[in-house]
User: What shape does this take?
Amino acid sequence: DGGITQSPKYLFRKEGQNVTLSCEQNLNHDAMYWYRQDPGQGLRLIYYSQIVNDFQKGDIAEGYSVSREKKESFPLTVTSAQKNPTAFYLCASSIRHRDRDTGANVLTFGAGSRLTVL
Amino acid sequence: GDSVTQMEGPVTLSEEAFLTINCTYTATGYPSLFWYVQYPGEGLQLLLKATKADDKGSNKGFEATYRKETTSFHLEKGSVQVSDSAVYFCALISIRGGATNKLIFGTGTLLAVQP
Assistant: This one.
C-alpha cells in the first residue's frame, strides 16, 4: 500500500545534539512538507519542497534544515539552534499544484515522530 | 494574512448526540476548505473538503458547507459515536497564480464522545 513512513516514532535527544527525522513516501508525490504540532497551536509549517533539489522555508524554519535529494525522501534535521524542539513532527506529501481544480490540495500525512529533548 | 479560527475544545458529548464544530476563515483569493481528523497517536487524515462556495463536503456521516457569505465551514454530524473521538482541524488553501499547497490550519478541536 502506498503511504508515508516516518521514523523514528519516538526520539529522545540531549540538549546540544542534532537529530534527523526520516520521511519516506511511495506515492510518487512531487511535493513534501514538514509540520510541527504543539498543544493548542495547531500545525505550523517548517519547510516544504515542490520538487527534487529544491525546498523553501515555511513559517518556523529557524533551527531546522532539510534536504531533497530524492523524490521519495525529505529528511528533517532538528539542530541544536532550535530553542524549543520538543514537539510532534508531521511529514506530508501531495501532488504538485498546477491547477486549482486538480485536487492537488489534499495532503497525505505520516503517523508522526515525537521528539523529546531531555 | 490568511487564517483559520475554530472553536476551542474540548467538546464532550454523549453517544448519538449532534455535533457542531465551528470554523471561520479569512483569506484572499479563492480558498479551498478542508477538515482533517487526527486520532490519538496518529497523523492527520483528510475527512472532507469543499473547493468553491456552496459546495458541501461529506464523509463518514460528517458534513460541512462552504459558506462564502459568512466565511464559515462548520463541521456537523447528526449522531456521534465513541469512535469519533479525535482532534478535528479546519484548514484552507488560498489559491493564487503559482501558489503552493500550503495548508493553513486552525488550532484543532478535541472531541470526546462518552458512551
The longest strand of chain B covers residues 86-95. The radius of gyration of chain B is 14 Å.
